[in-house]
Amino acid sequence: MNLFAEALAHLFDPASWQGTNSLGLRVLEHLGFSGAVLLAAAAIGIPAGVLIGHTGRGRGLVVALTSGARAIPTLGLLTIFGLALGIGLEAPFLALLVLALPPVLAGAYAGVEAVDRQVVGAARAIGMTEREIVQRVELPLAAPVLIGGVRSAALQVISTATLAAYVSNTGLGRPIFQGVKAGDYEVMLAGALLVALLSLVVELVFQAIQSAAGRRAEPHTVPARASARAPERNTA
Question: What pLDDT is recorded for position 222?
């Protein structure tokens, strides 16, 4: 209990948030690095997942790749990349990218594939192109599941990005590793508490975004253009 109180005292000490080694700088580094990894994973995983979910091709490969990537220990992968690439951000970036890609890819693929095929068929029947079907039908309806995949990846990356300090001495892993080496366990615990707080904040933000996307996707029986043209067909 004393250690926890000392960690809180360190967090609320104004001196801890000042200077070139401040906790505020470490938080910004952690968020910036995690965000860059997540953006890269989204840039790769979302288009690939949407394409696979829309066409139905390559689903076996996706399952194999995502299952295999999740089985790889991130610390071991980071060590391999660190030995190959040396000190810097490249090794942790690649290791965390491997961690973030499976949930993003799986969320995009599962969300698009779960869209009612009758809705897609109705969109084709009224003359929508495949691009319009993806952009105006499948993506809006798949958004809750897709965002859920990104949400899962974000939490994993933020909580695991502390390992970046293992080879790059950056982010909130820095006070954690420094606290272990110097025996300043209150500093180590303070860094861990900040990581947990960041994860909680990110979880709440993504939960709100996912709930909003779910509310927009609720009226999903037919595409908007199909429902608009239905009365015309009935009166004819």
Answer: 42
pLDDT tens digits for range 84-143: 888 888 999 999 999 999 999 999 999 999 888 888 889 888 988 888 999 899 999 999
Q: What is the rounded distance in angstroms from the CA atom of residue 147 to the CA atom of residue 60?
A: 22
Give, in order, the Cα–Cα distances in Å from 175 to each of 39, 78, 167, 217: 25, 19, 14, 43
Say if CB 144 and CB 111 are below 8 A apart.
Answer: yes
Q: Which of 169, 171, 168, 170 is nearest to 198 (CA)?
A: 171
Q: Are 172 and 194 in contact (CB under 8 A)?
A: yes
> Reduced to 3 DSSP states, what percent helix, strand and coil does the chain have, rounded to the nearest 5?
85, 0, 15
Q: How many CB atoms sit inside 10 A of residue 95's CB?
A: 28
pTM of the full structure:
0.84
Q: Which residues contact 16 (CB under 8 A, 6 or more apart)?
A: 10, 22, 23, 190
Contact 10, 16 (CB under 8 A): yes
**Angle (nearest 5°) at CA 196 between 148 and 69:** 50
Q: Exposed e or buried b for every residue in 164-200, given b needs 16+ CB within 10 A?
A: bbbbbebbbbbbbbbbeeeeeebbbbbbbbbbeebbe
Count, residues in the chain = 236
What confidence tens digit (pLDDT) does each residue in 190-226 have?
999 999 999 999 999 999 999 998 888 775 444 444 4
Six token digits for residue 162: 């502390």
